[in-house]
Amino acid sequence: MVQTFIILGSIPFVVLGFAHGVYTWIERSRSFRLTPHKAEVRDAMMGSTLKIHPKTNVWRAWLGFNFSHSVGAVTFGLVYLILASSELDLLIGNPLLLWLPVAVSGAFVLMAWRYWFIIPLVGTALGFVCFIAGVGLAVRG
């Protein structure tokens, strides 16, 4: 059951991260869901550079943050999917590897609750609950 719960906890992060990456890619059109409702806001983002570098505008940074967020979620999910599928003894035997998905998925739940909307909140909460169940079973032996 430990393996099953860790695998189930990983899946929402892979799926949501991949979907977020696809949505960000599609964002290059003006009809995407992450585009501000007001076209002038997007235009202002494109026209405003960041102090860190004059060639980086807010819009490009926004797209980059979204892509990196997607890569991070997919990578996190895939690492634990692979560990649970093929290296379960390593995962269970290493307290850091065992507890890390609880901490990371918990952080995602808090971010989803505070900054995002219902779909990522539900998905990350499901992953978090599954990770808690898997870790709890692993600790109990």
Structure in words:
The protein has 141 residues and is mainly α. The protein has one domain. It contains six helices and two strands. It has helices at 2-26, 39-47, 58-86, 88-93, 95-115, 118-140; strands at residues 49-50, 53-57. Strands 1-2 form a two-stranded antiparallel ribbon. The chain is elongated and about 55 Å long. The chain starts with a helix and ends with a helix.
List the helices and strands and how they pair.
Elements: H1 2-26, H2 39-47, E1 49-50, E2 53-57, H3 58-86, H4 88-93, H5 95-115, H6 118-140
Antiparallel strand pairs: 1-2
Distance between the termini: 11 Å
Give the ordered list of helices and strands.
Answer: HHEEHHHH
Fraction of helical residues: over 70%
How many H/I helices? 6
Short characterization:
With 141 residues, the protein is mainly alpha-helical. It is built from 6 helices and 2 strands; from the N terminus they run ααββαααα.
Question: Which terms summarize this structure?
Answer:
141 residues, mainly alpha, 6 helices, 80% helix, 5% strand, elongated
